[in-house]
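Render this sequence as a predicted structure.
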Amino acid sequence: MSNTNSSATNGGGVVYTAKDFATDQDVRWCPGCGDYSILAQMQRTLPAMGIKREDIVFVAGIGCSSRFPYYMNTYGIHSIHGRATAVATGVKLANPELCVW
């Protein structure tokens, strides 16, 4: 099992670690919230996928989990209530090369 310091090389030869996907934003979820685990696992897993940060977009709607794009050092969109799926679809249609979450 790999740890949070695991790294991987993307196609461009850049080596990313979990820290490369973290931001300087204070995480503002309630203590014990499961979103902490999801954030940590995404920051841990993305380096292994070998995708450049500039090719990743996180799209979120409304609610606490929608702060997610602010906590990832990738592109992100905080959309309006009920429209995250439509916005994510539009992003993917506009640029099919992007990895949209």
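Summary. Confidence is low (pLDDT under 50) at residues 1-6. The first strand starts at residue 7 and ends at 9.
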